[in-house]
Amino acid sequence: MSFGIDDLPVRDELRGKSPYGAPQLDVPVRLNTNENPYPLPEPLVERIAERVREAARNLNRYPDRDAVELRTRLAEYLTDTSGHQVGLANVWAANGSNEVIQQLLQTFGGPGRTAIGFEPSYSMHGLIARGTGTGWISGPRNEDFTIDLAAAEKAIAENRPDVVFVTTPNNPTGTAVPPETVLALYEAAQAAKPSMVVVDEAYIEFSHGDSLLPLIEGRPNLVVSRTMSKAFGAAGLRLGYLAAHPAVVDAVQLVRLPYHLSAITQATALAALEHTKTLLGYVEQLKAERDRLVSELLATGYEVTASDANFVQFGRFDDAHAVWQQILDRGVLVRDNGVPGWLRVTAGTPEENDAFLDAVRQLKKEQS
Ligand code: PMP
User: Ligand 1 pocket: which of 127, 128, 229 to mutate (most atoms <8 Å of CB)?
Assistant: First the structure.
């Protein structure tokens, strides 16, 4: 036997575990990782090249450690789109919202502390908790994947977690969480501990409803986390950010690595923000495609979970993984998130969605 991970003195909680990640398979239609299917428009590509060229001239120097220009522009974007005034002091940025979440757990979680999420939800919350030595508590959901408020409040009161994750719209189900529910969870979390409530809004631009950003007013323990990976079509950029009380922004700086955001990342994100209007135009197209996927899946006889995101959870299947394989055999990669009976498809271009719909219609025909 060759030398492997288990022969190394790795931490006990990492033993026997696998790294997170969807299969990156080379198939014609990839609708499995909630990416935006539209490549960045050419004028933006040119602007990125320009800004990166400028940044390259100073790569002998460390980048702006506080990413002031970028955070200022992100604050403007948030203010413009939510109607709630936020500024530089309210905003923090990192390499993807995964890193934002990691920094939050390093700051507010850690050994001897716990975090709770209402599952099924974004599994990285639990995995980052593990990576930061934070205990993980799996909270409940209703059958229809909405949050069971009474059960959630009870779980918070009993476990007194240090961090509460609320993902809206939720991944992988697409379920939006109403503001009243978030407010009730916030109150429950404050009564129990007090603890931090992290509202993960990675998909909020695709929602029928509004961002919960205005709720940070007067609630210093509420954090809204966002990303440029989805609506901005820039998953490859790795840029996530948060909005919260300035004290939260001060606190996460205790754990961030110095110069964590490269000058290239900052330059690229700034260029993308200059093209916000065009990029949000694609979001409108994707929302229409998401709604088309929902109605076509229902018309074909599948069950669908109401979606506010750029993906749709559909089922139900006795053996979801077998169906995942059958769809893959037809050249379309969707996601099996391990939710029994359900699969998830990301809204792609109209042509990609047609290919997916053809595949699932064929499957239905073969079954009947
Ligand atoms: N939150 C949720 C709910 C997600 O689904 C994802 C990505 N799939 C992320 C955060 C992380 O995204 P990123 O690190 O690319 O910003």
Answer: 229
